[in-house]
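Figure 6 in text form: structure in, sequence out.
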């Protein structure tokens, strides 16, 4: 079992996305999975030019010389691909979107209809199953609606399936280690470890784990007040 994570956070190893992914991969590793963790913030990946040279002039090879080819080689044999991102304007980060645009190199120029009669590009590689991990600063989980819809569409286009969606609202609290909130966050990260073990072992999450992952850290009203205090403090310090 090989699990490849594509971390689309611009903050890389300093981000809340990394905190979530680290816990997930800890559990997956304990279950015996081989893991690869790619930080897009540390890579040079230019924008796709849509020149289609990777289809017609040099099939399977992009004309852009950057880190993309190495990443594709690193993750191509993964059984599961984890896409991880902070929520940016209701969607995935620009880094992650840019990476996925460049994955055009692994697709076929030919179209084919899926079981529901919709055309999609055929893939040249075996598509791994997908896990989506995201966090946001807002208190409500409803902010992940676009990402949830998008990852399902992405899976359909790859002719694969989404085996888990893990979303953390109140993401600003993920880095807290002190006091009662720190204890609650620590417990949540333990559940993420469990999620990693379950995915590595059974390729699915139990209902209990899903329910525990959906629980909030603190009541929304308190969270909103604390965020306001933080913003007031930052603005005051900048004056």
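Output sequence:
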């Amino acid at each position: 079992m090989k699990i490849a994570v594509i971390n689309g956070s611009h903050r890389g190893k300093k981000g809340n996305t990394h905190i979530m992914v680290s816990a997930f991969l800890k559990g997956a590793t304990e279950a015996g999975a081989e893991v690869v963790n790619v930080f897009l913030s540390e890579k040079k990946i230019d924008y796709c030019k849509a020149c289609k040279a990777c289809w017609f002039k040099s099939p399977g090879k992009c004309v852009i010389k950057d880190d993309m080819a190495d990443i594709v080689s690193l993750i191509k044999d993964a059984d599961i691909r984890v896409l991880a991102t902070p929520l940016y304007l209701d969607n995935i980060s620009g880094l992650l979107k840019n990476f996925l645009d460049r994955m055009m190199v692994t697709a076929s120029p030919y179209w084919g209809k899926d079981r529901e009669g919709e055309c999609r590009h055929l893939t040249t590689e075996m598509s791994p199953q997908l896990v989506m991990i995201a966090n946001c600063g807002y208190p409500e989980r409803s902010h992940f609606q676009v990402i949830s819809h998008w990852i399902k569409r992405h899976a359909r286009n790859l002719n694969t399936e989404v085996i888990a969606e893990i979303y953390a609202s109140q993401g600003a609290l993920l880095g807290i280690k002190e006091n009662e909130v720190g204890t609650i966050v620590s417990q949540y990260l333990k559940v993420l470890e469990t999620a990693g073990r379950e995915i590595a072992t059974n390729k699915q999450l139990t209902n209990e784990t899903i329910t525990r992952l959906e629980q909030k850290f603190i009541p929304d009203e308190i969270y909103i007040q604390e965020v306001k205090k933080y913003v007031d403090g930052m603005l005051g310090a900048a004056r």
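Caption detail: The chain has a mean pLDDT of 94.
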